[in-house]
């Protein structure tokens, strides 16, 4: 029986992906630290750092959605063994990478991509831009205080709704016509954080402003609220491409993969008003 393994199944992308695959009639194994079932999806315990959990996760599956959950920084060390485990079992991999990593083969996420490309199994690489959903997750505490403070300067990003990442992944997992290709996933338009804050402010009917802060201050702020130092440094570092303008590009990959245009930032805000309030 064909079955799809979804890593990070309880996360921002994993949850809607599991739902969409089930709606397509797929058999799904939802992998997470807890191993809890998700609706009709079978639950299975998975720990990136414990290879003894790999066998039960990959048992009976022919396709897998591979991504690294938030909070980890050992990207290559944790993901390449997962790619190797999939390849050893001849499992197709749809891999959630990161926009822009193909610019430099020394970037850890790019090294994982290369390992996958050379693995001998069918693959699809998805490289999403910054998530629209970060506004009601990572930046929600700031919005509550009326300030989004990040080290983005005036850089723009074509924010992508996680539902579009999930739909793109579901499409890639459900057909072979996208195999052995990489796709840059973006929203339909790029906005600065100041522009995004203004949109959120208007929708909520309360002041929300953007404050451009320095990297050091941002990193210290994260650590002050309990973010581990190595992950705080990682989160700080990934704003460099934003400041350089490298996250402002727009692609039609969501349309190509799903047959539907990517959701706008306005649509995300409208659909998540309760989460943002």
From TrEMBL:
<feature type="domain" description="NmrA-like">
    <location>
        <begin position="2"/>
        <end position="239"/>
    </location>
</feature>
<dbReference type="InterPro" id="IPR036291">
    <property type="entry name" value="NAD(P)-bd_dom_sf"/>
</dbReference>
<dbReference type="InterPro" id="IPR051604">
    <property type="entry name" value="Ergot_Alk_Oxidoreductase"/>
</dbReference>
<dbReference type="Pfam" id="PF05368">
    <property type="entry name" value="NmrA"/>
</dbReference>
<protein>
    <submittedName>
        <fullName>SDR family oxidoreductase</fullName>
    </submittedName>
</protein>
<dbReference type="InterPro" id="IPR008030">
    <property type="entry name" value="NmrA-like"/>
</dbReference>
């Amino acid at each position: 029986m064909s079955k799809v393994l979804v890593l990070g199944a309880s996360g921002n992308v994993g949850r809607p992906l599991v739902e969409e695959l089930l709606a397509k009639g797929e058999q799904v194994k939802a992998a997470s630290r807890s191993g809890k079932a998700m609706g009709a999806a079978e639950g299975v315990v998975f720990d990136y750092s414990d290879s003894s959990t790999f066998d039960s996760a990959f048992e009976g599956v022919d396709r897998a959605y591979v991504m690294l959950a938030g909070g980890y920084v050992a990207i290559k060390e944790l993901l390449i063994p997962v790619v190797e485990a999939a390849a050893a079992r001849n499992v197709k991999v749809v891999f959630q990478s990161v926009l822009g990593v193909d610019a430099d083969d020394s970037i850890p996420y790019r090294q994982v991509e290369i390992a996958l490309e050379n693995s001998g199994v069918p693959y699809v690489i998805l490289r999403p831009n910054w998530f629209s959903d970060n506004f009601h997750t990572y930046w929600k505490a700031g919005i509550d205080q009326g300030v989004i403070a990040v080290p983005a300067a005036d850089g723009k990003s074509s924010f992508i709704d996680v539902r579009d990442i999930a739909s793109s992944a579901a499409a890639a997992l459900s057909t072979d016509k996208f195999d052995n290709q990489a796709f840059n996933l973006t929203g339909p338009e790029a906005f600065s954080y100041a522009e995004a804050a203004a949109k959120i402010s208007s929708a909520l009917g309360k002041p929300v402003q953007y404050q451009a802060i320095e990297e050091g201050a941002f990193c210290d702020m994260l650590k002050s609220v309990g973010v581990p130092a190595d992950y705080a440094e990682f989160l700080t570092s990934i704003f460099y491409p934003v400041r350089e303008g490298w996250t402002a590009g727009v692609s039609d990959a969501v349309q190509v993969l799903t047959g539907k245009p990517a959701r706008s930032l306005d649509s995300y805000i409208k659909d998540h008003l309760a989460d943002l309030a």
